[in-house]
What does this fold into?
Amino acid sequence: MFIIINFKSIKLIWPDLKENYMVEVFKTNIADENIADSILEKLVSHLPESYVNFDLEDCDRILRIENCTVHAMEVIRIIKQNGFECQLIE
It folds into this structure.
């Protein structure tokens, strides 16, 4: 089951997460909103049951992924394949 929230042009999709809920936070060098949107589309296609967003105003250009199973190395690979840096914040 998904909860869909639609605020004008912002559409967020949350899965109905159970007990194995995880949050991973990554530092990136993505500063452009259009590029971030493109990367988000790619990440959501690989992690369809995830809530994925960027905080481009943070000095670390934060990428946050909420899901039951986040594969950090897969996320890093996707970001790096697109020419950007990505590092898991522990």
In short: Helices lie at 33-46, 72-81.
